[in-house]
Design a protein that fits this description.
The N terminus is likely disordered. The protein is 32% helix and 11% strand. By secondary structure, the protein is α+β, with helices and mostly antiparallel strands. The chain has a domain of 78 residues.
């Protein structure tokens, strides 16, 4: 082979290597910018604690300040008994008896979602108990009164009596939702949680022999045709606080702000 051919071959190889080098470097840059699956971090989310801390008040302060008024939660509505609310670390749960038509769809969908069959007895939200005469005879509520119905649901108490009086410690706080849930593998079906709860919300299922209670899944709110039950994200409450000037965006860290999603 001549010297000319050798030189040509060497030059072609050098050109090929120089063209591949940038591709290799670019690939390294892309890989460096893309986090590995094991190293990916979850974005922070709003919780009850973080929102109340940023607003500098409790839930009552949000009500008085009008932050949750767009969901019907006002001082007058609560004082009249029309609105009842409870909170979990992830949601504010609002029930509006003025919107409830008594259809009991919430009970049907709750039991189908959690038990696999329709059962008013084990439904975690209940209307049927107050359907005829309201909370008590003479209350003026129910189908024989003003046709307003009280929606009974778990309060997810800060000091839950169901947890305190369970003899086998079968009720605990869910790590993700903060709701008090029953561990079916530990529950002995004694019914102490039902007796200890001021509203008798936990119920022992006649089918399984295990206590059942609300896990804050939100199916009742999704299926209510009148919007009588709402599960409100704390992130939405924080956004409303910003809109009303109660909370400044300067108080928020960048990874907590919801990305713009268009008009």
């Amino acid at each position: 082979m001549s010297d000319t051919n050798l030189n040509n071959d060497s030059t072609a190889k050098m050109d090929e290597q120089s063209q591949q080098a940038p591709k290799t470097d670019a690939a390294k840059t892309v890989n460096a910018a893309t986090p590995e699956a094991g190293n990916s971090t979850k974005p922070k989310t709003f919780t009850r604690r973080s929102v109340l801390a940023m607003c500098g008040c409790g839930v009552a302060g949000l009500i008085v300040g009008g932050v949750v008024a767009k969901w019907g939660v006002t001082e007058d509505a609560i004082a009249s008994g029309r609105i009842q609310l409870s909170t979990t670390p992830q949601k504010m749960i609002v029930t509006d008896r003025g919107r409830c038509s008594g259809c009991q769809r919430c009970e049907l969908m709750c039991s189908l979602r959690n038990d696999g069959w329709a059962s008013q007895h084990t439904a975690r939200v209940r209307v049927w108990e107050n359907y005829n005469f309201g909370p008590s005879v003479g209350s003026g509520d129910g189908i024989f009164g003003n046709c307003e119905f009280t929606i009974k649901s778990c309060k997810q108490c800060a000091d839950p009596q169901c947890v305190k009086y369970c003899p086998v410690h079968a009720i605990h706080s869910d790590d993700q939702t903060g709701a008090r849930v029953v561990d079916a593998s530990r529950c002995i079906g004694c019914g102490m949680c039902h007796e200890a709860c001021p509203w008798n919300m936990p119920q022992v299922s006649s089918e399984t022999g295990v206590s059942t209670k609300c896990i804050s899944c939100g199916r009742c709110a999704e299926q209510c045709p009148n919007g009588a039950i709402k599960f409100i994200d704390w992130q939405d409450i924080a956004q409303e606080a910003i809109n009303q000037g109660v909370l400044s965006t300067a108080q928020l860290t960048g990874d907590l702000v919801r990305p713009y999603q268009g008009s």
